[in-house]
Design brief:
With 385 residues, this protein is of the alpha/beta class. It has helices spanning 20-31, 67-89, 112-126, 136-142, 147-151, 168-181, 234-237, 258-265, 274-277, 324-337, and strands spanning 12-16, 36-41, 57-59, 96-97, 101-105, 130-133, 156-160, 164-166, 185-188, 195-200, 208-215, 220-222, 225-228, 244-254, 269-272, 279-281, 290-294, 346-357, 363-366, 370-371, 373-377. Helix 1 (20-31) runs parallel beside helix 6. It starts with 11 loop residues before the first strand and ends in an 8-residue tail after the last strand. 44% of the residues are buried. The structure holds flavin-adenine dinucleotide (FAD). This is FAD dependent oxidoreductase domain-containing protein.
Length: 385
């Protein structure tokens, strides 16, 4: 294990990956005004198949008893609101929509996840943001569109009023522009922006010393530090032992008819007994689309040479959608939860890849076997803060 020392002023720092980890790192470093910062990505930002690129992601503070992420969200919330103001000043729509997040339990009970979340949030002094909906009537009085959900057993809920969803592709663009303004340099594209391997100091024995990266066009880019923020691609690029695995998660977008739009638009993000069912969904967005997804064990795509799971996406397999079994499962779930949506046509679907860590926590650390190398991955499906 090498001891960590921060880079000295004037250091050149290469960040590989321009998703939310890479860009928020680049932005935070740029505020220090003492580093030469370069971001590499295999695609223009926002990369179409990055986990960070989507029409919406939940912004929530509800993390059972994991108060680290609650605290992170409490720090993040004012920044989301600030970004909305910055965008409004430029005549752009909000990136953050504070609709609240509605957590359902079932059969009159919350699971540990919801119970612990309420406890942690209350203990942090934010009990006032929780609105309890303890009876079927209290839910349907507020949200008549969940009448069938309540009848089918999703009959206890709470609304966390501090939370909602972000337009994550727009959020990525917003921070990308901020990085450019702050002098961060970008190298993007399938040849010049794609990391192929590390440039190591010749002859280093024991702990290897990273002195830069080699891109697909065989160019060497020297740096004092390299940060691998390559999301679910990370385990396929750098040995992070068994700490993270790329898992494919199911996402579908539906286009409800005009008759349903009003009720499905004026609602919070919903999470349906999520530690048991995995399902969550969003209000209809401005484009008239409703996204539903499932947080689950997911799929893996092991590569031949070493069995490491690597993302398979629509960039290389343009015809890929989601497995038919997964769609059937989603429709069956919707039939019991929001039956008015269970047979809507799918207008878009994809497998979106998490970098899943063992305990669901982010993996952000100097690499123990490579000097000058930091890994920032292990988003585990919840890093869009
Ligand atoms: C289905 C789904 C739903 C989600 N829902 C939520 C949610 O509701 N709320 C929430 O908080 N989070 C959610 N997440 C998680 C969130 O999207 C991720 O935590 C976050 O986007 C991870 O960001 P990242 O920067 O680590 O990875 P990514 O956004 O995937 O970025 C990785 C980047 O690395 C680049 N890259 C890869 N390989 C190379 C290479 N060789 N050279 C150069 N560049 C490379 C890629 O092009 C990409 O731009 C969800 C994720 C999925 C998949």
């Amino acid at each position: 294990m090498t001891a960590y020392t921060p880079p000295s002023p004037g250091s050149k720092i290469i960040i590989v990956g321009g998703g939310c980890f890479g860009l928020s790192t680049a932005h935070a470093l740029s505020l220090k005004k003492k580093y030469d910062i370069w971001v590499f990505d295999r695609l223009p930002i926002p990369a179409t198949d990055a986990a960070s690129t989507d029409i919406n992601k939940i912004v929530r503070m509800d993390y059972a008893d994991d108060t680290l992420y609650l605290q992170l969200m409490l720090e993040g919330m004012p920044i989301w609101r600030q970004w909305n103001k910055e965008r409004a000043a430029e005549g752009l729509g909000p990136v953050y929509n504070e609709t609240g997040v509605l957590f359902f339990g079932s059969n009159g009970k919350f699971s540990d996840y919801e119970k612990k979340s309420i406890k942690s949030i209350t203990e942090a002094g934010y009990g006032h943001v929780i609105e309890h909906l303890p009876t079927p009537k209290s839910i349907t009085d507020k949200y008549p569109q969940f009448k069938e959900a309540v009848e089918n057993g999703y009959d206890i809920a709470y609304l966390n009023k501090d939370g909602g969803w972000c337009n994550s592709a727009e959020a990525v663009k917003h921070i990308y522009n901020k990085c450019i303004k702050n002098g961060v340099q970008f190298v993007l594209g399938p040849d010049k922006g794609t990391f192929e391997k590390f440039q190591e100091k010749p002859g280093s024995s024991g702990v290897k010393e990273v002195v830069g990266i080699v891109t697909k066009d065989k160019k060497v880019h020297y740096a004092d530090r390299v940060i691998m923020a390559t999301g679910s691609w990370t385990p396929g690029l750098v040995d992070i032992s068994t700490q993270c695995i790329a898992t494919g998660q199911v996402v579908a977008q539906f286009q409800p008819p005009q008759s349903l739009i009003t009720s499905l638009k004026n609602q919070p993000v919903w999470c349906t007994d999520v530690s048991r069912t995995g399902y969550y969904g969003f209000p209809v967005n401005e484009g008239g689309r409703m996204k539903v997804a499932r947080h689950a064990t997911g799929y893996i795509a092991p590569r031949l040479q070493d069995n490491v799971s690597v993302p398979r996406t629509q960039v290389t397999h343009s015809g890929d959608t989601i497995p038919v079994g997964a769609l059937k499962h989603m429709r069956t779930f919707l039939n019991g939860f929001l039956p008015q949506t269970s047979s809507l046509d799918v207008v878009y679907s994809r497998i979106c890849w998490y970098s899943d860590s063992i305990d669901g926590g982010f993996v952000i650390s100097p690499h123990p076997e490579y000097k000058n190398l930091i890994v920032a991955s292990g988003d585990s499906g919840h890093a869009m803060k």
